[in-house]
Amino acid sequence: xxxxxxxxxxxxxxxxxxxxxxxxxxxxxxxxxxxxxxxxxxxxxxxxxxxxxxxxxxxxxxxxxxxxxxxxxxxxxxxxxxxxxxxxxxxxxxxxxxxxxxxxxxxxxxxxxxxxxxxxxxxxxxx
Length: 127
Description:
Layout: H1 5-13, E1 15-19, E2 24-26, E3 34-40, E4 43-48, E5 53-59, E6 64-65, H2 67-71, E7 79-82, E8 86-92, H3 93-103, H4 105-122
Antiparallel strand pairs: 1-8, 2-7, 3-6, 3-8, 4-5, 4-7
Helix pairs in contact: 3-4
């Protein structure tokens, strides 16, 4: 068995997507139908406006993007694009939520609580 159960789930239920430097993976407001595990390269998450990207965050190999929005059942809250040539593994919403439901209502509740706290931290505070 793999030492990283997340990677194992991604590899068995996912497909790979190659991204070119600057290619947008998803934009703010799109339905959160997939989450992504960075297999190689680097992504940047930001809040775009007309003049520039605000509050950029770099996402490296082994990190997952899009899962918080999926767990909170909302559209993507940020824009994510490749910072260099990258490969991501795509995990569909139904697979992620199916794994959480399979783990039981406690695990789903814990994940939703963690997602809300991550979201609060990203917006400047956590209680």
